[in-house]
Known about the structure:
This protein has 362 residues and is α/β, with parallel strands linked by helices. The chain is built from 13 helices and seven strands. The chain has helices spanning 2-25, 31-34, 38-85, 87-91, 139-143, 157-176, 192-198, 202-208, 260-270, 274-282, 295-312, 318-328, 341-361, and strands at 125-127, 136-137, 147-153, 181-187, 213-217, 235-241, 244-251. Helix 1 (2-25) packs antiparallel against helix 3.
Amino acid sequence: xxxxxxxxxxxxxxxxxxxxxxxxxxxxxxxxxxxxxxxxxxxxxxxxxxxxxxxxxxxxxxxxxxxxxxxxxxxxxxxxxxxxxxxxxxxxxxxxxxxxxxxxxxxxxxxxxxxxxxxxxxxxxxxxxxxxxxxxxxxxxxxxxxxxxxxxxxxxxxxxxxxxxxxxxxxxxxxxxxxxxxxxxxxxxxxxxxxxxxxxxxxxxxxxxxxxxxxxxxxxxxxxxxxxxxxxxxxxxxxxxxxxxxxxxxxxxxxxxxxxxxxxxxxxxxxxxxxxxxxxxxxxxxxxxxxxxxxxxxxxxxxxxxxxxxxxxxxxxxxxxxxxxxxxxxxxxxxxxxxxxxxxxxxxxxxxxxxxxxxxxx
Length: 362
C-alpha cells in the first residue's frame, strides 16, 4: 500500500512540474532548450519533485500508522469493556475481603461526609422507586435501629453498572447473615428529571439486588448540607450502626467492582469474620436470588407483567395473581418458611396490603 502511494505521489508531482513547463511553453519559449542553465533548472525541478514525494508519503505513512493504532486501541478497549460488563465474566471474579482500616485513596487523603465515630445526620431525599416513589423521606429514620449502608454518588451509566456489581456482592452477604441491613442509594444531581428519564430501568434492578431506598438528594449535586460531601467525588460509601458512622469510603471515580475494603467494612458491621464472608462471596450458593440476565429472572418478569395486566383489568385479584405466581415459581419460597428477617417483613407487608384491598372492596 505504501509503495502504491509513493508511486502515485511521485506521478502527481511530475504532473505538476510538467504542467508548469507547458504553461511556460505557451508563452512562446521553451525553457529547457533556450535557457542556458536548462539542465540546472531541470535538476532542481527533479530534486523538488523528490522532496515533495518524501513529504507527502511520510505524511501518508504517519496518518496510516496513527489510524492503525487507533483501531487497535479501540479493539483492546472494546474487549476490555466487554469483559468488565459481561455478567458471566463478572460472576467468575474471586471477591476478596480486606481490613477496612487499610483503605486509602490514591494520592493525598480526601474527605467526604461524616467520619467514623460521628453521628449520622438526618436528611431529606425524594424516592425514585418502590412503595414510596415520588415521596419525601429520610433514609436514616426508615432504617430505625438497623445497620446502614449509604451510597452517595453522581449519575452515569458506568456508575450504575458498578453499583449493580457492588450490590451483587453485598446482597450475597445480606442473604447469609441474620443481621438486618438497610441499604440506601442516594443520587446527587442538580436536575432530578435527568435521572428519572435516563435511568428509570436501573431502579428495579437495584431493588432486586436488595437496595431498600433508591432516592435523589434534595440538596442537588452537593448532597445533604449536614453531610459535607465533596462534590468533586464520584462516590461516597458510608457504613453506620446505632446511628453512628463506622466506616467512610471515598472514591474519586465510581467503582466497577466491589472493593475488598468496603466488603471488609460490611463484614465488620455485621460482626462476621472476614474469612467467613470471603467464603460466602465465592461459593456457588444454591437458591441464590436470580440475576437480571438469567433465564429464570426473565421468565419471572414476563409472568409478573402478564399477571399485573390481568389485575389492572379486573380479571384477577392480587391474591389470585400471587397464588399463580408462587405456583409457577415455587423455588422463590425457601423450604420451611426460611429467609432472613427482611424477607419476612416484606411478605408481611404484602399480606397486610392484600387485606386492606379486600376491606376496601367490601
